[in-house]
Design brief:
The chain is mostly beta strands and 142 residues long. The chain has one domain. It is built from no helices and eight strands. The strands form two sheets. Strands 1, 3, 4, 6 and 7 form a five-stranded antiparallel β-sheet that branches. A three-stranded antiparallel β-sheet has the order 5-2-8, with no helix packed on it. The radius of gyration is 19 Å and the shape is elongated. It starts with a strand and ends in a 5-residue tail after the last strand.
Length: 142
């Protein structure tokens, strides 16, 4: 689960970050010759809990490259795959309340999965997805 703030902590203007934006996943991947490696990235409001969560839309890709290649998936966040909640963090004894962002925030559960066409052939390493990073980009995807 990840919280998406409408403004950078300490900034007064919520226009600093678009209210929704795009989740960007980057990685490196390769698959053994003759096989296909596929990946999918989804987001869910998660209102039914992690086991009942259903994604609305997804970003997916496949490769047959036997050499390392860059992977980038972009998934736009929308009202249907995020949930708006009222955030009021409790400040501890020595905390400064201004250190917390309060108000209406959105959150989403992100799901990432990979599959390989080798199916039950488990001899050796058939497909690999490594160095996975995820970040939130503005509405233009940067």
């Amino acid at each position: 689960m990840h919280w998406f703030h409408s403004a950078v902590l300490g900034e007064a203007s919520p226009s600093v970050i678009a209210p929704y934006g795009t989740v960007v996943l980057r990685a490196r991947w390769q698959v053994a010759g003759g096989y296909t490696l596929g990946v999918v990235l989804g987001a869910s409001a998660g209102t039914g809990g992690p086991h009942a969560a259903q994604t609305v839309g997804s970003a997916q890709s496949t490769t047959t490259s036997a050499t390392w290649a860059d992977l980038t998936l972009r998934l736009p966040l929308t009202e249907t795959n995020t949930l708006e909640v009222d955030m009021r963090p409790a400040a501890g004894e020595s905390a400064t309340p201004n250190d917390y962002q309060r108000g209406r925030l959105r959150y989403a559960r992100l799901f990432f999965g990979a599959y390989c066409s080798s199916d039950t052939d488990t001899v050796g390493t058939r497909g690999q997805v490594v160095n996975i990073t995820v970040h939130l980009a503005g509405t233009n995807g940067t």
